[in-house]
Amino acid sequence: MSSLRQQAKNLTPAPLWRAGRDSWLALKHAASWPLATLHPWRRDSVRRLADLKDAHRGERAFILGNGPSLRTTGIGKLKDEKTFGMNRVFLAFPEWGFQTSFLVSVNDLVIEQSAADITALPMPKFLSWRSRLFLKPDDQTIFLHTTYERPKFAKDARGRLWEGATVTYVALQLAYHMGFDPVILIGVDHSFASKGASNTTVTSQGEDLDHFDPRYFGRGFRWQLPDLDMSERAYQMARDAYEADGRRVLDATVGGQLTVFPKVEYNSLFRS
What we know:
This protein has seven helices and ten strands. It has helices spanning 3-11, 14-38, 40-52, 93-96, 108-120, 167-178, 228-244; strands at 61-64, 82-86, 102-105, 125-128, 141-147, 160-162, 183-186, 201-203, 222-224, 249-251. 36% of the residues are buried.
């Protein structure tokens, strides 16, 4: 928050500040609504999301975070599973010998700098509506109306989805929309070597220590430092939504630091 804005907040009674902020957000989202709802690209995406609603009811799915623990996870076991990959997971595809079932990416910096690679991927790709600024749609692109503000858990992905400070939360909402149960997290280490104020944009000065591949956010790549507190808030909302529907999210991350979801040992999920 800028120093001027912080000063204004300090001088304004809290209820008045919250009311003003809520009004500003409502106007902001009202202004974005027409394009995010009526544009032909979004209308096509909404139709395809309608086809996916509960299409995988009762099937299990894995959501792959991109933490260093992926290097010590038996990824080969997932070749015939339904999988959500995120952001620059495609760097691992040649080594794994297979691709994830879906790709999810909503961060502007990631999409802008990886647009050509993302466009070339042949699987269904769930991208933020903002990504239209960086790439053209194809028959595998589904645009999502995602926002930074106004926390919610979307049970129907045709409307607005809150990003929850992590693309993993968007993937959890998509998995819910499709009907998956259980949904199993791996590679969600929930810890970072890089330090600094949450959401600060930085430029990498060397190899990436926070993800499974040193090239992930390698030298010269611009990215935003994580907001772990906000993502934990989002994860708790996801757990509550799944459990209210009699479904489960499990965390099979090897050595992960996230404590929101029930833990399960990864190898126990497969027949020996």
